[in-house]
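Following up on my earlier thread - several people asked me to post the actual chain instead of describing it. Fair enough. Here it is, all 214 residues.
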Amino acid sequence: MNRILILTVGLLIFGVGIEFARSTGSQAQVEARVEPESGDQQADLPFEPPVITALSPIDRAYAAIGSRRTKFDPTNESILPSDREYLLQSAALVEQAVLWRVSAEQALKRNEKDRSNWVVAGQNLVKGFDLLSPPAHLRRYNALTQESIDRLRQYYQMYLWSQPSVGEPHNEQILRQASIATRSAYAELTHIYPSRNAQAEAAFYDMHHALDPL
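Reply from S.P.:
Thanks for posting it. Predicted structure:
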């Protein structure tokens, strides 16, 4: 039986979840160790979570950017059984990245002075993909998704250290690169699973659409 684990990517995701909940008016109690959201799938991770984290208000993050959320179903019959565990783990990381991206954008809009936690959380997300063990035919997907998040990390890090103006050409180029990597990752999945059913297609599309900064 799968253990109930919350995918964690560093202690600062704990802070990201708390700040997002506060900024969106969530009244949910934040705890150091919590059960998954009702209906969320569970996964055995190939590594021990490095630190504890809070329950992430992922549904609220999707809603904040007007995106639909379809959770990946690891029992989906159109997905190879040998691929399901990796896809469940990577989907959990992508959804944490969506929460992180939306939270970071809101922090920028509020002109928060201390943004270091958003950058470190992004670094931990990038490292999370190094800890996964994708099947050979999913390694390119893993790399593309990791690249997308790393580009976003670079974008937010520039705002932390140099605080450039929004719309500067170099910053827009980084966002375009992140978007291209995200769309390429989605295209890679559609190529690998041409016979995917409607549930798998919705899950693949929704999480990559929400991660795409453009």
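Residues 11-211 form one domain. That should answer part of your original question.
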